[in-house]
Amino acid sequence: MRFYNVAAFLFPRSYERRLLLVCLAAIHVPLIASIAFQAITGEWQVATLVMLLAATLVATGIGLAAIHGLLSPVARAATMLQAIPRGGNDLLDGVTVFAKDTAAKESTGRVEREREPTRPVECDPLTGIRNNQGFLDSAEEVLQGEHNAVLVLIGIDHFQLINDQFGQAAAEQLLKSIARRLEDGLRRSDVVARREDEEFAVLLPNTVLDEARMIMERLRASVALDESLSAQGWPVTFSCGLAPVRTFAQFGDAVRRADAALGEAKNGSRNRVYAAMD
Hints:
The chain is an alpha+beta fold and 278 residues long. The protein has 2 domains: 2-83, no CATH class; 90-275, 2-Layer Sandwich (Alpha-Beta Plaits). It is 60% helix and 12% strand. The protein contains 11 helices and 5 strands. A hairpin with a 2-residue loop joins strand 2 (191-196) and strand 3 (199-205). Helix 3 (29-41) runs antiparallel to helix 4. The model is unreliable at 81-115 (pLDDT under 50).
């Protein structure tokens, strides 16, 4: 514990470096012991020292690579958490949203399968998810009666520039990847669609605005940090606008407010989530 405290004092902000220091000290124990023993006895065995030194260097390299590999997911997760703006009790909010996501996936699978587009007229031919008409039909079903729900409009940042720079094939592949990421990253009860061009729409039922913001911040950060989505080195991000909606009669107004919020996000720094208030 004292040695770890020393490591923490030397590297107060890097847990990885503390582990590396501890492992390096442990790996060098045989070499240090051999040098000390030969110094005490006065009988130096150079060949033995060289062999121990070589073995220590090899073990050090293997240990460094292994520790770095083991800690890389932790570092990535920490970076994603740092990418989410702070406000309120972030940890509690994150746990709450995660729990609700999990519960929704378990309890609404059958309902969502019934909502999946079955007619070609409701499907976007490129991405395979709902098109705008399919989205409207599903939204009308979801918003029967009064419910807490949030409409999300998403736009890929600098999409036209990506299309011009890397070609239509790369742009279409990006649209497919974002559509798949949205479907995989959201709950089964959520409705996902490609609205037009580089814009997508999501309806989050049984969700309040703060929960929706947390869900979309998580998705936004995961896309921004995913190098596999980058277009030949060009970073891929998206912006989105959120608007609460309770009934289908309010849906048109919610679309206008979410679209305005998306415009605010894109006119700002992009790669952000902007919510319209009630």
